[in-house]
Design a protein that fits this description.
The complex is a heterodimer of chains A (193) and B (178).
Chain A lengths: L1 H13 L10 H6 L4 H30 L8 H23 L1 H7 L3 H5 L2 H13 L3 H31 L9 H16 L8
Helix pairs in contact in A: 1-8, 3-4, 3-7, 3-8, 4-5, 4-7, 7-8, 8-9
Chain B lengths: L18 E12 L2 E6 L11 H4 L13 H7 L2 E4 L11 E7 H30 L2 H28 L6 E5 L10
Classes of the chains: A mainly alpha (193), B alpha+beta (178).
Chain lengths: 193, 178
């Protein structure tokens, strides 16, 4: 149980998808101008990463590994992720058209989010069981969402701050992102071997 | 998207407390109902700043998966503001409250995920087999989606999911300037 908890903390904070593995950087810069949109994107990505990782694990274990088709892994995972996003979009539209109207905008963006594919490939490298893989994917995506919301909060404050003209906009955002990455390096002190 | 009745207008010039705003174009007016199509706020070539952002490909493409069909699918109805004398092609600023966005996210994504993870954990601890855990997770996901449906119905009944008319968009006002 302790190993399980440490694995999840490691996936969320120590080896953070954005700040340590540098995945999902386009959404990190593009959707973090406001906290609420960052949170919406974070929830949607958490759902898609977890669900598609479950599907990827099953495909890897029962199809690719079983029939020696490992060389098709990347292509297959991309297909599975696209299907998972489409499934999510269709399901939300069916469950509640109002929710789809409000949140549907995030879903097409997730299809091209490399963090989703990155987490799925990390699962394969880790040779995990199903529940362990699912929890790893969930923790990774929670780490992604956490960083998105923190960075959006910082950018909302930056928008009100007096920033030198040459640094205004994306340059100061990149500087802040670098500082945030350094701050997260502090979590490596609790890393497990 | 079908013609959900999504909104109640606010008084002209009013703003929602801490609202998320977006720009939509009037595409049809029938009686008291005004049909709106959201302007795409990501690289699409449909918003008023498309000329400067340089992404205008596929603007008029039709068919499954195209931008045109995706935008058409996201059309929604605004009830009531016909008294404002809106005309087709006019651009409006509509908004929903921040809390509503968060509640909607939790309902749509958080609930199904919570149920899926809990049932997968319970089944794994009971049986310890991956195949049974997958089945348990799928069952949990289905239960979660059902719970999401009920939750969304409650939110919709309270009118929390309805975008509201805030004001007419100013000439040249775009996603980047709201």
């Amino acid at each position: 149980m302790k190993e399980f908890a440490l694995m999840m903390i490691g996936a969320a904070l120590v080896n953070n998808v954005i700040l340590a593995r540098f995945l999902g950087l386009c959404s990190f810069m593009g959707v973090t101008t406001r906290v609420d949109t960052a949170a919406g994107m974070g929830f949607a990505t958490t759902f898609v990463i977890t669900v598609s990782s479950m599907a990827d694990w099953a495909v890897q274990t029962y199809l690719l590994e079983a029939y020696g088709l490992g060389f098709l892994r990347t292509v297959t995972f991309i297909l599975v992720i696209a299907s998972a996003v489409q499934f999510t979009e269709m399901t939300i539209k069916k469950v509640s058209p109002s929710l789809f109207q409000m949140l549907g905008i995030y879903l097409p963006l997730i299809t091209t989010n490399c963090a989703v594919l990155g987490v799925a490939l990390l699962l394969v490298e880790g040779k995990m069981g199903f529940l362990e893989a699912t929890m790893f994917a969930f923790a990774s995506s929670v780490g992604y969402s956490l960083v998105m919301v923190i960075f959006a909060g910082l950018r909302e404050r930056l928008a009100l701050a007096h920033v030198p003209r040459l640094f205004a906009g994306p340059p100061i955002a990149f500087v802040v992102a670098g500082m945030l990455a350094m701050a997260f390096m502090g979590f490596s002190g609790i890393a497990t071997s | 998207m079908s013609g959900d009745s999504l909104s109640t207008p606010l008084a002209a010039g009013a703003t929602l407390p801490r609202s998320v705003e977006g720009i939509a174009r009037v595409v049809r007016i029938s009686g008291q109902q005004v049909w709106l199509e959201p302007e795409q706020t990501t690289s699409c070539g449909h918003c008023a700043s498309s000329a400067s952002c340089g992404v205008k490909a596929n603007e008029d493409a039709a068919g499954i998966g195209s931008l045109a069909s995706r935008l058409q699918a996201r059309r929604f109805v605004l009830d009531g503001p016909s008294s404002l004398g809106l005309v087709e092609g006019e651009r409006l600023v509509v908004g929903v409250s921040e809390k509503a966005l968060l509640k909607a996210s939790i309902t749509a994504y958080g609930l199904p995920l919570f149920f899926a993870l809990v049932t997968a954990s319970v089944v794994q601890s009971l049986y310890g087999e991956d195949a049974k855990t997958i089945l348990g997770m799928l069952a949990g996901l289905a239960i979660g989606l059902l719970a999401a449906r009920l939750g969304a119905r409650r939110l919709a009944a309270r009118g929390e999911l309805a975008p509201r008319f805030l004001r007419r968009a100013m000439p040249g006002e775009t996603c980047g300037t709201t």
